[in-house]
Every structure is written in structure tokens, then in C-alpha cells.
Specification:
This protein is about 35% helix and about 20% strand. By secondary structure, it is α/β, with parallel strands linked by helices. The chain has a domain of about 190 residues: P-loop containing nucleotide triphosphate hydrolases (Rossmann fold, 3-Layer(aba) Sandwich). Helix 5 crosses helix 6. It binds adenosine-5'-triphosphate and magnesium ion. Magnesium ion binds next to helix 3.
């Protein structure tokens, strides 16, 4: 078990100590966690809440931080508010309560400092793959000449294996291909932070695995900071340093309890893990069972 404390009681400052007590962690991991502890949150969420109906907030009191270079996933049932949180971080939605900061500044609107891969593909249907990505690249670096933009676009389209479709329009692509264009576009603008909303949801298992590997390689290489929503427990365990478990709002004992962060799971597996070896790593099944148990029995009840 990684942490039994609720996020409301658990600050990132106390997390490694709490985890250390619960887990027989090798000394090098202790050192890593102490280092993480000393870092200040690059992204900081404070007491975030969202209500469409004032007496029934979707979630409330959500607080967490993400350090530079950290990969954090959030898991929770449909409707608990994951996309809403990601949209607030992207500056595309506003919270009803609380604040979100990146690099010490409050997030007040969309910015090219944050690359977003949406749950829906959000491509411009009248532009080809090349033009869709070039549009974003040109917005990011307005001074770049056409050949430089083109080279940069082709590099990122190649990264997701779509060079053969680079001059096609979104309507000519499958759902999975469109999602890969979204991923290439987010990476192409080299954002300070990647916000990914189920980026692999529409991919078949084989492509999904390949792109997970690609993403992990690039993220490790570039020290990219990532916040990602997923429904796939194995994907979260493979990719993330920490996993936020989110509960749904629900009626409990005659009164409504908003959703929120129920627990933060620190991934104790070595960071250099691969998909192929994941299920052989000591601790993998315990962690997986813990998250699945949360989703089955605790995510809908406080
Ligand atoms: N404009 C709106 N008006 C009213 N309720 C809304 C609105 N937008 C979202 N909601 C509600 O807010 C809740 C959270 O939505 P959100 O899209 O963040 O969920 P999610 O966790 O991303 O779900 P999923 O896993 O299905 O994508 C949902 O219950 C949804 O019905
Ligand atoms: Mg969503």
C-alpha cells in the first residue's frame, strides 16, 4: 500500500515520509524522493473546486503540485471532473473555487507554454496534417521561415508514424491517426508542460504501446513535465511518477459529498521500466491491485 491518507491531509511535503513508512523502499529511491520533496511545485493547484450547481459541486478542495520533469497521471471514473481540472490547467476553463499556478504565475488563459492533447481531436478540418501542425509551430515561432517550419513539422509527424498521411485532411484519417496528429502537434510546440486528456484512447493496442514507448522516451529525454488523464491502470503505472486517484461526487448518508482527490500513489518502480518488463517488476501487482480496488470499491464512496 502506498498511501492511505487522503490528499486533503497529505501535502507533497509530507508524502515521501509517509510513503517511506509504508514501503520497504531502496535507499536510492529514498534519496530521489527526498530530492523531489525539496523541489518547489512547478505547477501548483490550490483548493480547486468546480460547481455547475452551487449545492452540488462536481469536485472541491483539490490541491496538488507537480514538479518540473515529473509525469503525473490522474485516474477516476467518468464524470468525476478530470477533464475540467485539465482544462483549468490549460487556461480553457475557470474554476469556481481555488487557484492554479504555473512557474509562480496564476494561469489566466491559454498559452503556448502548455501543449494540450484533447479528448476529442480538435484539429482544424479544412487543413491537412502538415498545415494543422505548421499553424501551431508558426504561432509558437512567428519568425521561422517556411523550410524550418516544414522540417520541424515533418520531424514530429514522423515521430508518430504518420509521414504517409502528412498531406491528408482530418476527415481522411482514422480516430487513432487524428489522435496521433494531436500528440505530434502538442510536442511540436515544445511546451513547458504537456496536458494530455486520454491521448491514446482511440488507439488500437499495438499502436498504443508503440506511442506510449515513444512518449516515454521523449519525455525522459526532454525532461518534459506532464499531466495526463487515463482510464488505463497499466498505462498510468508505466508512465507516471505519481498517480492521483480521484473520487466522484455522491450522495452519502442523505447529503451530497463532492468529488475530490482521494489519494496519491507514488510509483515505486524503477524509472527506467519498459512495457515488456513491467509485470515482472516486484511491487507491480500490489500497486495495480491497489488502484483497481480503489476504482472498484472506493472511487464512488468517500
Ligand atoms: N457545461 C456543463 N454544464 C453542466 N455540467 C457539466 C458541464 N460540463 C461538464 N459538466 C459535468 O461536470 C462533470 C465533470 O466533467 P468532466 O468532463 O471533467 O469529467 P471527466 O472526469 O473528464 O469524465 P470522462 O472520464 O467521461 O471524460 C460531469 O459530471 C459533467 O456532466
Ligand atoms: Mg474527460
Amino acid at each position: 500500500m502506498w498511501s492511505e491518507t487522503t490528499e486533503r491531509e497529505l501535502t507533497t511535503a509530507t508524502l515521501p515520509a509517509a510513503v517511506a513508512k509504508l514501503l520497504p523502499i531502496p535507499s536510492e529511491l529514498h534519496a530521489l524522493q527526498t530530492k523531489a520533496n525539496a523541489m518547489t511545485g512547478f505547477l501548483k493547484i490550490e483548493k480547486l473546486g468546480k460547481a455547475y450547481q452551487s449545492d452540488k459541486p462536481v469536485f472541491s478542495d483539490v490541491s496538488f503540485t507537480i514538479d518540473k520533469g515529473e509525469f503525473v497521471c490522474i485516474i477516476g471514473h467518468s464524470g468525476c471532473g478530470k477533464t475540467t481540472i485539465l482544462n483549468v490547467l490549460a487556461g480553457l476553463d475557470t474554476a469556481t473555487a481555488g487557484h492554479a499556478f504555473m512557474d509562480g504565475r496564476e494561469i489566466a488563459g491559454p498559452s503556448l507554454e502548455r501543449g494540450v492533447v484533447f479528448q476529442s481531436h480538435a484539429l482544424m478540418p479544412w487543413l491537412t496534417v502538415r498545415q494543422n501542425i505548421a499553424f501551431a509551430v508558426h504561432s509558437r515561432w512567428p519568425d521561422w521561415k517556411k523550410p524550418q517550419v516544414n522540417e520541424h513539422v515533418e520531424k514530429h509527424v514522423g515521430m508518430v508514424g504518420l509521414l504517409h498521411a502528412i498531406d491528408k485532411k482530418p476527415s481522411q484519417l482514422s480516430g487513432g491517426m487524428k489522435q496521433r496528429v494531436g500528440i505530434a502537434r502538442a510536442f511540436a510546440i515544445q511546451p513547458k508542460m504537456l496536458l494530455l486528456d486520454e491521448p491514446f484512447g482511440a488507439l488500437d493496442a499495438l499502436t498504443r504501446g508503440t506511442i506510449q514507448d515513444e512518449l516515454m522516451g521523449i519525455v525522459r529525454q526532454t525532461q518534459q513535465t506532464v499531466f495526463m488523464i487515463t482510464h488505463d491502470v497499466d498505462e498510468a503505472i508505466l508512465l507516471s511518477d505519481r498517480i492521483l486517484l480521484m473520487s466522484n461526487g455522491n450522495e452519502s448518508g442523505g447529503h451530497y459529498v463532492p468529488g475530490g482527490l482521494a489519494e496519491v500513489v507514488v510509483n515505486p518502480l524503477p524509472r527506467e521500466r519498459t512495457r515488456a518488463q513491467l509485470h515482472h517488476l516486484p511491487g507491480y501487482y500490489d500497486m495495480r491491485n491497489h488502484i483497481v480496488d480503489f476504482l472498484v470499491s472506493r472511487a464512488k464512496a468517500h
